[in-house]
Amino acid sequence: xxKITENLENGNTVRLRLDGTLNAPSLPELEEIxxxxxxxxxxxxxxxxxxxxxxxxxxxxxxxxxxxxQLRIINCSPFIxxxxxxxxE
Length: 89
Hints:
Elements: E1 2-10, E2 13-22, H1 27-38, E3 44-55, H2 57-66, E4 71-74, H3 78-88
Parallel strand pairs: 2-3, 3-4
Antiparallel strand pairs: 1-2
Helix pairs in contact: 2-3
């Protein structure tokens, strides 16, 4: 199960704090929220993965696709950081 907490830090920055397991069933909700914020021109999105306890390769690939100048992934565990690097290659 994944909990997504949206915090608007200022007019141009939103932090999406994820807590729990990030897997295929939780991905559509995350994609919808990210897409909604990415459609706001000039908005920066911080995807805060500090509370993510597990992520599989399929989801890591999707996060790499979503990442852009607008969307930045922060506060990854060493496991998730390695997984993201692996799927980028």
